[in-house]
Amino acid sequence: MSSMEVVRTERAREIASRVEAFVRTVVIPYERDARCGSHGPSEELVRELRGKARAAGVLTPHILAGGGHLTQLETATVLKCSGLSPLGPVAVNTAAPDEGNMLLIGKTGTDAQKARFLAPLVAGDARSAFFMTEPAADGGAGSDPSMLKTSARRDGNHWIIDGTKAFITGAEGASVGIVMARSNAGDDGDKVKATMFLVDLPNPAIRLERILDTIDSSMPGGHAVVRIEGLRVPDDQVLGEVHEGFKYAQVRLSPARLSHCMRWHGAATRAHEIATQYACTRQAFGKLLIDHEGVGFMLAENTIDLQQAELMIDWCAAVLDGGSLGTSESSMAKVAVADALFRVADRCVQVMGGTGVSRDTIVEQVFREIRAFRIYDGPTEVHKWSLAKKLKRDTLAGLQTD
């Protein structure tokens, strides 16, 4: 892997350039729009932004005409530009959870499923939700998917699903759902097996109990607690194979972690731009802030962290394109990039002082969003624990062969 060469294509540069121009000129002025609420931009605002993105030819830019997909390395170039505003990924349709759900359905779904569930997502006419995480109070699945409690049992050529889900991003207002449920009884001591199901939303059997008030506010619909009672799903809406849900979760989550890194790299870059401009125009004690070593060094450290994070993203994207990205690589990227970008955002707030903690600029929101990112798609500590287990496994295996 050390000899891997990162090659940026002209196609990716051209698409990324158009996306960046659109985000900077069209999307950023919407950041102060009253329709940006504590649970994300309103449906009206999403439609308006996507209409402008469609007219500008930058809607769903990572998926090509005819259904082809940019390589992951090309996608990295584009998604970093879309992330220059918290509203950017929503506007150009590269946001979570839709981007990851599109990838999963595209890789796993049947032709009929793609026509019914994927096409509206790619067109930007629908949003989706991924129903996996469960409430901690109920002892359900969070970072440990083997604790999955939501059940799916056969009833003729249908499945009946019951359970409670939590932190379900975008459930309010979504038209497409992917529900993950335990599909074996487990009474015989077998290992938990899961199956994924595609569902149309809204559905009377899927009830939103409440929208959580969370630190972040960039994702439409916010994050919901959802109760599923007696949901009937026909066999032809099983996504992939029965009992293979955990495998498909990795198909989705490994690239999705990387996509998060791409988008938030763009946001951290924007925060750094704002903080640098502030430090180059604000004076204190007779000179510009940037000329004070404490401030200048923080901005220099930001530049280093951003460059190192970009290298990690591009390296993992190229490895994924080579077909060999595993959970270890995606875990390393998630940990390294999330922590680096949080340091960047934190320094930006510090450099800007009182202005940094106000909502006069987007820096305050970027700080909140990236703080949440350190937990979403697996907390830093869970990924480190996974890496430590692999180190132990590999080391012990090596000792046995010596």
Automatic annotation (TrEMBL):
Tell me the keywords, alphabetical order.
Answer: FAD, Flavoprotein, Oxidoreductase
Q: From which domain of life does this come?
A: Bacteria
Residues forming the Acyl-CoA oxidase/dehydrogenase middle domain are 129-213
Q: Which cofactor does it need?
A: FAD
Is Flavoprotein included in the keywords of this UniProt record? yes
Listed GO molecular functions?
acyl-CoA dehydrogenase activity; flavin adenine dinucleotide binding
UniProt lists the family membership as follows: Belongs to the acyl-CoA dehydrogenase family.
Domain Acyl-CoA dehydrogenase/oxidase N-terminal as annotated: residue spans: 9-125
Question: Mind listing the GO biological process terms from this record?
Answer: fatty acid beta-oxidation using acyl-CoA dehydrogenase
Identify the GO cellular component terms for this protein: cytoplasm
Q: Where is the Acyl-CoA dehydrogenase/oxidase C-terminal domain?
A: 244-391
Record's protein name: Acyl-CoA dehydrogenase
According to the record's subunit comment, the protein's assembly and interactions are: Homodimer.
